[in-house]
Amino acid sequence: MKAKQFYAAAAGAAMALTLAACSGGGAGSSSDDASASTDSSDTAASGETYRVGVAMPTQTSERWIADGEAVQSQLEELGYEVDLQFGNDDIPTQTQQIEQMVTNGADLLIVAAIDGTALASQLEAAAAEGIPVIAYDRLINDTDAVDFYVTFDNYTVGVQQATSLLVGLGILNEDGSEGDATGPFNIELFAGSPDDNNATFFFNGAMDTLQPYIDNGTLVVASGQTDFNTVAITRWLQEKAQERMDNLLTSTYTGDTKVDGVLSPYDGLSRGIITALQNNGYSGTTADGFPIVTGQDAEIASVKLIADDVQFSTIFKDTRKLAAQAVTAAQSILSGEDPEANDTETYDNGVKVVPSYLLESDIIYADNIQELLVDSGYWTEEEVASGVAE
Ligand code: BGC
Known about the structure:
The chain is an alpha/beta fold. It has 14 helices and twelve strands. The radius of gyration is 22 Å and the shape is elongated. The structure holds beta-D-glucopyranose.
């Protein structure tokens, strides 16, 4: 049944739609672990099973695998049929997957785009069939055919990344108060993929936070490379970040000039940057003067590096909560209601402002890994110790 027809059916059917708050089941957990409550009353009411197509960008990063599995298991708990696809970071693969979902009779799509501007024609075809679309974590741009957006507060993620860089350098303390260090410190900047709408939000949040310190000379971007397009890493590729950091080290950091900190927007890039630093004579831990490198996603390999005091920080975005929010929105839409939004101003996709639900993120330092990642069941102590998801 298409959502259009379903809206009508839903109006007459009294359906108890409940979704237990997501809990348990860490990032690396299997789909069995996610804990949405079992309630297939919405499908039972109509005697049909609703199909949800879930398009995720890649399996090369843990977070998207965790996102995909969490969304799938939580939808299945509710009795939905789920078609989960990963796009291998390849735009034609993802567009084809979405076309196939439409052909196969999806009632709703949940899409984390590889390129936020490349899906307009597929999603317009979906809209023509009455299939609603939820943009997952990444906004889909330049089309009217996106109904809702679930994400984290992406600007604040950037603020948190920059804040953790300032903490690592000693300019701020973890509690936000002013630290003892006055610099000047040499830093370099990295941004994410230019076709990912989030990348500019992260970079803008970070730069608004760092700019006053650049202006007063506490921070110096020694390469002079501060423009988003110059520092952006297409497709968020670790090897490209390593290559750029290598180039920066050999071109700018010669003689006695050392880099003190690197703004990195994603753990995969951070590990490429750390490898480049290590290949260019930087060693030891941040306590010994290894440069401060930030991150995002709390990937297990980076969490271990943080526990070992090599990477300084990351940003934890609890994918279990994002999945639960997407599933809640899907339930609302499929029952003919407007999903609950907490932001109806920020995310203009070029055609309209997409109503959004934004979640909060946390800065992870070595001293809160236990509380935020282990005690919450996201990673186990053994996974943190080994750096490998079980
Ligand atoms: C996500 C980040 C992730 C990045 C690379 C962004 O769209 O919001 O959490 O680090 O993609 O996968």
